[in-house]
């Protein structure tokens, strides 16, 4: 990484000599510093301009343009005309799109609730003195760093309908053969199978955020509660839980936004099928644009998705921030 | 792996206090967590054992340990998924995106953290909006823009995309961290005749090392693993990244699980190694973000 930071932090009275190759300085020697003239001074706002330009080009301008396209009949080639709210009316008559709205919401609720519950339990489990805690943290977080597409392919094997292999094989081996299923091929199960896969991948992510929160809970408060006779549950409920509020806010927001936008896992595991049983807003808008060439309609669906995400995040942020306390 | 922890300072204090008083539940908890870990690891067990079996073994005993293990799948997967070129493409795109994200994110956040009112606050909120906006909304206009620039199928098109799309989260992390730093160091440097650029590169940036570690790992994971954008922007260009390469490879050999899983193992290894090296920064970064 960079040069040792001790050399730069220890000295407040004069600018320390940058040791070695700190990124950005290129190892300038102190003698050269003196030659810098006043008129080369950089104004503070210049620091934010490059970031703002890139952000505007990649996110702000295209998003605004997307809002405009949502009100057109653009097909991706040639011209287009403005058609008012027709795309949104079409959406209300489009059974597949409506089903995808329902699927997206169910998937999001399942992922948010289960992933955070498991993440919290894992965090409580590894925030103790057990000897395997470091290894367990790494094991539980590791799936979150692997590509969602690859996780989907791995789980396609876990869910494979053959009886001797994957999850079905395990169920047979432990005497629960009656529970064997075609997990991704059954229209009433496919969506939940995808949810389980997503939860498996990101439960460790929630765990790490809760763990960061748990480590901010002062030991003294627990000791005081213990002396006052509070049991394990009471200490969790009245000391730990309220102080976990910021971690809970971040976790709920990230998993909600992630759930609503979910694409890669669904695309690779089921491609929305069987039939339309696991279509989400993201897979529908992808197909409308790049399979059927209805770019205007597709961005209308994207705008609905954006409004969903914005509304849910705002409500969550307001509600959750209000109940946050500090130690 | 077991010697480095995801832990920060407060946890060590917890341990010291508790160590004086060994508790009964400790062994039961250890056992319970071990069982959870075993259940959790089943897909990984399937991944590793199948990668080490030949098709006959997979058909005969899919769940058993490979006996004898074969490494043949790995060699075959390496060549038929053309992983070498995919790894190079991914490394170039991820490396340059990280470099730009660190430079633009840290400098931008330096201004936003120190100007927390008026225009500074407005810009901060504008950046945070990018965390909430689904990229799908701008997906098609951006595709047109990249196409018009002639940047489809290029490295710099991808680097620009990832820098823009990940700047909001990066700025969020850096701003939270910088706000918790005392401004005195940089002010002292300014009084002593540094300009803002020098104060930043010599004083502030080195202090940002822990959060830069977090920024590197979280963005590396995102950029390295992203599937959709390279599929759209790089399809057929010969510059496909690892997830796209694996996607078409799996489609081709879908029934040969040994070969496919060997490919998945090879494709996931680089990012897992980066994670293991930098994992201690993950929790610190989140702890910093929680305060911000």
TrEMBL record, chain A:
Ranges of biased composition (kind: Polar residues): 1-12
One GO cellular component term: plasma membrane
Chain residue ranges for the region called Disordered: 1-37
TM region positions: 42-64, 105-126, 138-158, 189-217, 238-257, 295-315
Any one of the GO BP annotations: transmembrane transport
Entry membrane topology: Multi-pass membrane protein
Family: Belongs to the binding-protein-dependent transport system permease family.
Name under which the protein is recorded: Sugar ABC transporter permease
Taxonomic source organism: Streptomyces liangshanensis
